[in-house]
Design brief:
This protein is an alpha+beta fold. The protein has a single domain, classed as Cupredoxins -  blue copper proteins (Immunoglobulin-like), CATH 2.60.40.420. The strands form 2 sheets. The chain has a 5-stranded mixed beta sheet with strand order 3-9-8-5-6, with no helix packed on it. Strands 2-1-4-7 form a 4-stranded mixed beta sheet, with no helix packed on it.
Length: about 120
């Protein structure tokens, strides 16, 4: 194989790899619709919930807890108190891309992970 053909073959492989990477994105599926998180004994039922949205899209989730605490969305710095047995809802535009922790503030217990894709 001549050097010219090797370069063409290499460029073809690189182009294909770029298409595959671009098509895969972050590997995370976008969240459809609002998410409801249930907290029991200071732990998210079913584990930490993943919320994935595109920048500019709405972030919508609610938390029902069996004890009173503050729900904190890090990065966005949103706080809401949830009463024992109560539910709080969040609805805001995803203006900041990145990964953010959503937690029970007083217990430092992560209940969800928010990923905002560019």
């Amino acid at each position: 194989m001549t050097n010219g053909r090797k370069i063409v073959a290499l460029l073809a492989v690189l182009a294909l790899a770029g298409l595959l990477i671009a098509g895969c994105g972050s590997g995370q599926k976008l969240t459809k619709g609002p998410v409801h998180i249930f907290v029991k004994h200071a732990k998210p039922v079913g584990g930490v919930e993943d919320i994935v949205v595109k920048k500019g899209a709405p972030v919508r989730f609610s938390v029902t807890s069996d004890f009173a605490d503050e729900i904190h969305v890090h990065g966005y710095n949103f706080h809401k108190d949830v009463e024992k047995g109560g539910t709080v809802s969040f609805d805001f535009p995803a203006k900041i891309d990145g990964n953010f922790v959503i937690e029970l503030e007083s217990r430092s217990e992560q209940i969800a992970s928010l990923t905002v894709q560019p």
